[in-house]
Amino acid sequence: MAIEALGDLGQGLRRLGGAVTGGIAWLGYAARFMVAIIWHSPAAFRRLHLTLREIYFSGVLSLVIILTSGLFVGMVLSLQGYEVLVRYGADEQLGILVALSLVKELGPVLAGLLFASRAGSAITAEIGLMKATEQLSAMEMMAVDPIARVVAPRFWAGVISMPLLAALFSALGIFGAYLIGVRILGVDAGAFWGQMQAGVKVWPDVSNGIIKSLVFGTAVSLIAVLDGYDAKPTAEGVSSATTRTVVVSSLAILALDFVLTVFMFRGIGS
Amino acid sequence: MPVATTAASHAALSPTRRLDPAAAAIELVDVHFAYDTREILKGITMSVPRGKIVAIMGASGSGKTTILRLIGGQLKPASGEVLVGGQSVPDLEPDALYALRRRCGMLFQFGALFTDMSVFENIAFPMREHTELPEEIIRDLVLMKLHAVGLRGAAQLMPSELSGGMGRRVALARAIALDPMLVMYDEPFAGLDPISLGIVGQLIRRLNDALGITSVVVTHDVYESLKMVDQLYFVSEGTIVASGTPEEVRASTDPYVRQFVDGAPDGPVAFHYPAPSYRDSLFADVDA
Q: Which of A150-159, A187-196, A244-253, B249-258 has the least mean pLDDT?
């Protein structure tokens, strides 16, 4: 009995050790992949049309979902915020509440999650399918590095698009809040905009949002291109890589948001 | 003259009797390769003469495509030499390897055309990547390559609009876009109807002779290969079991070659995957 228990414990420890070393190996691989992307980035930027094309696919084609979501999130935030603020006679603070919530937190996080679902999954599926159909091998055999030609433009397109999408998400959210708060619930327009103008600072408020969205954009783009490049060249492999991109990106955004918020919060306090 | 088989083929192609390096475009000498612990190639020795078409034949999983990937430098052998144009491919630095690849073309099993580009753009791709030619010259060159494979009229189609045979011909045009010294074909006949198959086979022969290139064709198609190649190598379980000219292969009495040429379901390449005896498998529960 005791020997069996020891055996189970040993197996459990072995599995745990395997998972830890596997995780460390994956992090090392991801870091090397990131270095390779940066190394090949000058080549990608020399042919700017490649990156611009990917910005169109990742950024411009994500606009509908980002703008629509931003508008509705802003409207809901306005309704919920108004209900609480009006109890304390502070409904004129609605503008600053909505703006700070969106610019510092909801804009980057929700835009990041939507970006991971729409653009991240598309990038993984595209690169994975290129691998499965030997297009990446064909490129290698034509003496064209797929990291420079395929991966780097998609990575940088994500990094560039994400802050812009987050900014648009926040802008539409504020507009949505204005429609509900001012036009429907009757909050004074001057107070709504004035409080927002006085309360929202470029540094640290807006800059925190920009930093967050840049970090999220980098994380999502890296996960998306890495999963695609590393996908098993089968239908099932591409499918599971695409799912993994959405799950891992979403978790990474939430975890990074917490870490960044802790650092930024401390920064304000000190 | 009988086809060289097993030990005889090794003797004929042993390092001491290799082709004159000036005459050999490709040489593999005692090449071993394994994926982790699974040994794929177990001492492959072969030469491909300049300007000739050589077919590598064998059952699925015998290591044929691995040989192409070793020649192209996508894989490195565990031991042995892989020489292309006198250069040791595994020892090349990335820049030198890419320089070598610029002088090689490869046709993949299902074409591997870039699906987001038109036929024209696919063929222009290597020219745009590796040359500074003006667009007018690139346009003319692309149309010439497409004309050579009979698809000038399909220049503006997308790969999804092409039939299997057309896709393979476009991929062939792309493989010769930079006028390579060597073209490798990975299963160029797979999944083609008899007409397309005949066209692709004829194109490989014609382009090889017209452009003075060397061709390596990995294929299962014995009938088509015997019509167009200069020499054949038979690979089984990671070793070369036979080699010879098409005439020698036709006349061969070697059991492996006969099974392959005649398409016999059983022979040296067994019908059954290795397993315990049939009786033991069926009555395992009863015996227990």
A: B249-258
- Picking from A133, A147, A149 by the largest number of B CB atoms within 10 A of its own CB, the best residue to mutate is A133
CA angle B183, B74, A30 (to 5 degrees): 145
Residue (of A214, A217, A245, A247) closest to A230 by Cα position: A245
- What residue ranges do the domains of chain A occupy? 47-269
Report B:220-239 residues touching A (Cβ under 8 A).
Answer: none
- Confirm or reject contact between B179 and chain A (CB < 8 A): no
Residues forming a β-bridge with B219: B57
Is there a contact between A129 and A232 (Cβ–Cβ < 8 Å)? no
CB contact under 8 A, A138 and B72: no
Q: Count helices and strands (H / E) in chain A.
A: 12, 0
Considering only CB atoms, A134 lies closest to which of B104, B112, B130, namely B112
Encoded tokens for A123 = 């990038």
List the alpha helices (DSSP H) in chain B: 6-12, 64-71, 94-101, 119-130, 135-148, 164-175, 194-211, 222-228, 246-251, 255-262, 278-282, 284-287
CB-count burial class (<10 Å; 0-12, 13-18, 19+) for B62: buried
Looking at beta carbons, which residues of chain B come within 8 Å of A234? none
Q: For residue A66, give Cα distances in angstroms to A44, A101, A165.
A: 27, 17, 7
Q: How confident is the model at residue B274 (pLDDT cuts 50, 70, 90)?
A: confident
Closest CA to B47 of B63, B67, B33: B67
At residue B254, what are phi and psi to the nearest 5 degrees? -60, 130
Q: Per mean pLDDT, which of B107-111, B173-177, B264-268 is the most reliable?
A: B173-177
Rounded CA-CA distance B202/B181 in Å is: 19
A233 touches B at CB < 8 Å: no
pLDDT in tens, A116-145: 999 999 999 999 999 999 999 999 999 999
Residue B7 CB neighbour total at 10 angstroms? 8
> Residues 132..171 of A with a Cβ closer than 8 Å to B: which?
133-135, 137-138, 140-145, 149
Contact: A137, B110; criterion CB under 8 Å: no
Report residue A4 as tokens: 């069996």
CA distance A1 to B267: 53
Give all domains of chain B, ordered by start, each with its CATH number: 4-287 (3.40.50.300)
Contact B186, B109 (CB under 8 A): yes
Nearest CA in chain A to B95: A143
